[in-house]
């Protein structure tokens, strides 16, 4: 069975309750199942059982991730890698194995792989100039500095929950203002713990980090409230009914960048949008229910959003990493 066939089969197996639980976890990945049951007006036992199954089967993974822009000494960069024929998987796997990559996708086009990396300037320089060019099968590399994020995958609202339900979710405060912080050793330990399990209890965090439960609770809450730490519910959009993902690169006049970005994110199909430096000014991704819907979107975008001088679109073929998590159990 092909990967697409597996995803479509999984989508058929998920019912409305499963999708609504996933929708809630996308808004608040640390919510107790009892709270989810109360807001969604579902039986506690049903939500607990279904939620545990979704997590244990890897349909959804909850992870903690430091938000780009929160660390003054680190920055994010988009890298486009052109691969030699037949080397796509080798290159994408090598990129996904780097702890600094946030996502890694193979797309349509000229054997193209797109990734986002996050780290200090010196580390990014080493990755761009030495590490990536040294991966077998890499034939060309282009890089773009991320200037501003308008939406990341963690902030995507796929429309599974009603507006009334989303208003009841305490963590649903996107986009949050992000404060620049300095990560202390205890903060780093908490981040490492939550990166493995974003739903870890304060007791589990305290034991893993060698802190008191009160300290673990206080520090974790501070990181979350600062906007520096976000909890991502990592899920393949195909599982919840959006099997077509497309990355789009926009060229426009500098004066039009903000206007175009603000118009684009009004559409809930947009999962990710950032302004970037270089020969393109905006990079964004959409998730659609079908290629027919994607085609209609592409046909109308020039009319709906003024100022675009060029738009290049590439459909996602395979994801190797999402929100810092390799996709062995998410996309396979």
Automatic annotation (TrEMBL):
Gene3D superfamilies: 3.30.70.920, Winged helix-like DNA-binding domain superfamily/Winged helix DNA-binding domain (1.10.10.10). One of its GO terms (cellular component) is cytosol. One of its GO terms (biological process) is response to amino acid. GO terms for molecular function: sequence-specific DNA binding. Residues 14-74, 187-243 form the HTH asnC-type domain. Keywords: DNA-binding, Transcription, Transcription regulation. Pfam families: HTH_24, HTH_AsnC-type. The keyword tRNA-binding does not apply. PANTHER family: LEUCINE-RESPONSIVE REGULATORY PROTEIN, TRANSCRIPTIONAL REGULATOR AZLB. This is Unannotated protein. It comes from freshwater metagenome. The lineage of its organism: unclassified sequences, metagenomes, ecological metagenomes.
């Amino acid at each position: 069975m092909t990967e697409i066939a597996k995803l479509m089969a999984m989508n058929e197996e998920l019912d409305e309750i499963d999708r609504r639980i996933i929708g809630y976890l996308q808004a608040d990945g640390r919510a107790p199942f009892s709270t989810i049951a109360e807001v969604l007006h579902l039986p506690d036992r049903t939500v607990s059982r279904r939620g545990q199954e979704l997590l244990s089967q890897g349909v959804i993974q909850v992870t903690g991730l430091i938000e780009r822009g929160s660390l003054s000494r680190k920055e994010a960069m988009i890298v486009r890698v052109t691969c030699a024929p037949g080397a796509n998987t080798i290159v994408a796997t090598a990129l996904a194995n780097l702890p600094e990559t946030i996502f890694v996708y193979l797309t349509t086009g000229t054997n193209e792989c797109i990734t986002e990396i996050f780290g200090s300037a010196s580390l990014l320089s080493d990755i761009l100039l030495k590490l990536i060019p040294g991966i077998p099968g890499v034939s060309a590399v282009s890089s773009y500095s991320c200037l501003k994020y308008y939406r990341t995958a963690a902030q995507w609202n796929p429309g599974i929950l009603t507006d009334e339900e989303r208003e009841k979710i305490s963590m649903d405060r996107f986009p949050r203002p992000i404060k620049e912080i300095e990560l202390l050793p205890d903060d780093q330990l908490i981040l490492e713990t939550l990166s493995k399990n974003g739903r870890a209890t304060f007791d589990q965090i305290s034991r893993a980090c060698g802190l008191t439960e009160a300290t673990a609770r206080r520090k974790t809450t501070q990181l979350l409230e600062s906007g520096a730490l976000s909890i991502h519910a990592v899920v393949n959009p195909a599982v919840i009914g959006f099997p077509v993902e497309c990355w789009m690169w926009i060229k426009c006049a500098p004066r039009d960048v903000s206007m175009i970005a603000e118009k684009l994110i009004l559409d809930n199909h947009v999962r990710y949008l950032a302004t970037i430096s270089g020969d393109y000014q905006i990079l964004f991704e959409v998730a659609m229910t079908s290629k027919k819907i994607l085609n209609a979107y592409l046909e109308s975008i020039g009319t709906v959003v003024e100022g675009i001088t060029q738009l290049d679109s590439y459909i996602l073929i395979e994801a190797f990493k999402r929100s810092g998590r390799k996709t062995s159990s998410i996309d396979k």
